[in-house]
Amino acid sequence: xxxxxxxxxxxxxxxxxxxxxxxxxxxxxxxxxxxxxxxxxxxxxxxxxxxxxxxxxxxxxxxxxxxxxxxxxxxxxxxxxxxxxxxxxxxxxxxxxxxxxxxxxxxxxxxxxxxxxxxxxxxxxxxxxxxxxxxxxxxxxxxxxxxxxxxxxxxxxxxxxxxxxxxxxxxxxxxxxxxxxxxxxxxxxxxxxxxxxxxxxxxxxxxxxxxxxxxxxxxxxxxxxxxxxxxxxxxxxxxxxxxxxxxxxxxxxxxxxxxxxxxxxxxxxxxxxxxxxxxxxxxxxxxxxxxxxxxxxxxxxxxxxxxxxxxxxxxxxxxxxxxxxxxxxxxxxxxxxxxxxxxxxxxxxxxxxxxxxxxxxxxxxxxxxxxxxxxxxxxxxxxxxxxxxxxxxxxxxxxxxxxxxxxxxxxxxxxxxxxxxxxxxxxxxxxxxxxxxxxxxxxxxxxxxxxxxxxxxxxxxxxxxxxxxxxxxxxxxxxxxxxxxxxxxxxxxxxxxxxxxxxxxxxxxxxxxxxxxxxxxxxxxxxxxxxxxxxxxxxxxxxxxxxxxxxxxxxxxxxxxxxxxxxxxxxxxxxxxxxxxxxxxxxxxxxxxxxxxxxxxxxxxxxxxxxxxxxxxxxxxxxxxxxxxxxxxxxxxxxxxxxxxxxxxxxxxxxxxxxxxxxxxxxxxxxxxxxxxxxxxxxxxxxxxxxxxxxxxxxxxxxxxxxxxxxxxxxxxxxxxxxxxxxxxxxxxxxxxxxxxxxxxxxxxxxxxxxxxxxxxxxxxxxxxxxxxxxxxxxxxxxxxxxxxxxxxxxxxxxxxxxxxxxxxxxxxxxxxxxxxxxxxxxxxxxxxxxxxxxxxxxxxxxxxxxxxxxxx
Length: 857
Prior knowledge:
This protein is α+β, with helices and mostly antiparallel strands and about 850 residues long. It contains 21 helices and 31 strands. Strands 8-11-6-18-15-16-17 form a seven-stranded mixed β-sheet. The radius of gyration is 26 Å and the shape is globular.
C-alpha cells in the first residue's frame, strides 16, 4: 500500500492503481474526469506537489508521500472566485473539462498571480476543450487572477433577468466545482460492469460464438448475445429504418468493426477485458466494402437487404442546364471532405437498473430520452412507459450522442440480470463505435452572369454513410437543401446519394451535412468572382438573400434575414487584411422538410418555485439558462424563483431530440406560450404561492413542406440563421485573425452566444486544417491525442459581431439557433484565404500545403 496526502488528509491505496481511478472509485472524489485515460485531454488534471498533472497517467506506486490537490480540496474563497469568474465570462458549456481547467489555472496562479494571456495559453496546453474555443476560459482565468490579487468581493447575482442579459449560466457552479453528476459519477450498491466484444473484422460471417471459457471466469456474471434479446434485435434512431443490430447473431454478417458480438458482464470493472478475451468467435472473413465506389459497383454484395443505397435525393427547380449554357461564366470543381470525429470530452456511459416489479430505470447522457425509451422498449419487447429514462449532465455531444451507443446494452443486462449495470466506452472504443461526420465526394458546377449575379448550379453529392443508417438520410437532405447557398437565384439541379459501406457509421455532426456542401459552394463563388473581376466579398453581397426574395430551395426569405448586414459587418476586416478569405452561409433551425417537429414545456408551481419541465437535452448549449431568461422576460419572475428540471420521461414532456439547432426555437416557443398563460394567471394572483399546484402547458408544432413539394414557395424550415466570416493570414500562412458576424435573431445571452460561436469557429478551423479520421480497411487509425484538435495556444484572435434583426422572427421571442451555424463558414473562409495567398485551390479537407499541414511526399 502507498501512503499519500489528498486534500489535506492522509490516505493509502494499492500500488498498481492509477491515481484517477483511486480518486474516483476509492475516495469518491469525482471532479477529476476520465476523458481519455491516456493523458491527452487534461480532464483529470490535479495538482501533485503543486504541479498540474494528469491523474490518469500517475500510478500510486510513484506517489508515496506526495501531496495531491483536487477541486474538492480548494479553499472556499478559491471555489467562490473560480465559480464567479467562469460564470461571468461565459466559460462553461458542457462542463466536462472545466474542473481540469480550474486545476491548471490554480497551478499557474499559485506561482504567477499576474499572468499574461500567453502564460495562460501555456498553462492550458495539456487541457482540451471542445465547446468553448478556449477564449472564454482564458478570460475567466484572467478575471480570477485579478480578483485574487485585489481581494475583490463576489458581486451579488441580479434579482431580475431578461432576454439579452449576460446572466451566469445556472449550471456554472456544479460544473466548475465538479459537483454536477455525469453518468460516470453515479455510484450504486451492487453495481455490475459490462462491455461489448466487438467484431474482429469489418465484414465477416459469424459462424460460432463460444462463451464457455468466459463463463468459467470467477468474476463473470453473464455473457449475453442476440439469443438473449427478448424483443427486436434491430434498433435505430430513425424508427422506420431500425437497421442497427443490438448484437450480430451466429449466422449473420458483421458490417463494421464496432459491431457488438456479445456483452460480457462482470462483478468487477478490472476483469472485463480478460473475460472478453475468453469469448471465442469463429468468423468467415469476407471482403469489406470500404468506399461508396466499391459499394455501388456492379455485382457488389448487399450490406443490407434493401441494397447499398440508403438514400437518394434529387432537388430540382427551374432548368439548370439551360441557365448554365446561357451563363457568362461557369466553374466546375470536385471537392472531397473526410470523416471526422466529434471528440466530445465525455466518453459514452450509461447505467440501468430494475425499477418496480417490471420496469427499468436508465441513467443516460444522450440527446433525447424519448428516442432512447422507444428504442430500448423495442429491444426488450415491452411498453415504452416501462422504460424510465433520466438524463444526466452531458459532456458534449455535437450530434454524436443522438444514436444509442451503450444505453441499450446497459438496459438489456439490467433487464436480464435484475441488477444495476454500468456500460462505459473507453476513449478508443468511442472512436470506433459512434457515428462520425460524413465523408463526401462532391462535384459542383456554378454559373453567373457578366456582373457576377448567380444564375444556376448543379451538384452531385455522394455520401459515405458507413455501416448503418443512423441519420444518413436527413444529413443528405440538409446537404442538398443548403447546397446552393443563401443566395438569390432559382435554377438548381442537386442529386445526392448516401451509400452504405463497411466503414464506421456516419450520422449527425454539428453542421449536419451543410458543412460539407458549403465548402464546395463557397469555393466555387471565389472562382466565379475571379472570372468576373470582382472581390469574393462583392459577389456574396450582390447575391445575398434579402427579405421577401426566394431562396434556391424555393422558400421565401422571412423579414428576419440579415445576411447583408453580416457581410457589411465584416467588410472592413476583409478589405484591410493583406491576405484574407471570406465565406457566408446559412443553417436551418428545426428538422423541417415536412416531418413532425414539436416543442413542449410544462411550467408547474411546486413548493413556491416555478419548475420548468421539458425533455430537451442540454449538451452544452445552456438550454436551462435560455428557458429561465425567456420565462423571466415574459413573466418578470426572478431567476431564484425558477428551477429547470433535468430530462425525465416521467416528469418532462417530449420536446424532441437536441438536434438541428432546434431547441431554442421549438422548446423556446413552447415555453413562451406556457409563460404567457402563467403571466395571465399572475395578473389575477400576483404570487407564485397562490398558484401552488397549478400547471401551464405550452406546445409548438413547426409547419413545413416535404422535399419535392409542388408548392410555388415551399417552406423547408421554420427559420434560418445567417453568417459571414473572414479569415486573415500572416506572412507565413498562419491564421492571424477570424472576424465573424452572425444573424441568430434576438440574443438570449450575449456571452453564451459568443461562446457558442467561438467554439464553433475553432471546430471549423480544425475541420479545415488539422482534423482527420483515417481508416485502414475500416479500422480507425487515430487516437484522441492524434485527431488534430486545436489547443488553446493554436487558437487565433477572434472578433465576433452579433447582428440584431430589425424585424425579428415571430417565434420564441425572435430567437434563432446558432450551435450548428457557428462552425459552417470557417472551412471555406480558410480555403479562400489560402487561395488569396498563392492562387492554389485547396479542394480537399483537411487542407494540405498550409502552415498547419505540409504536403505529403
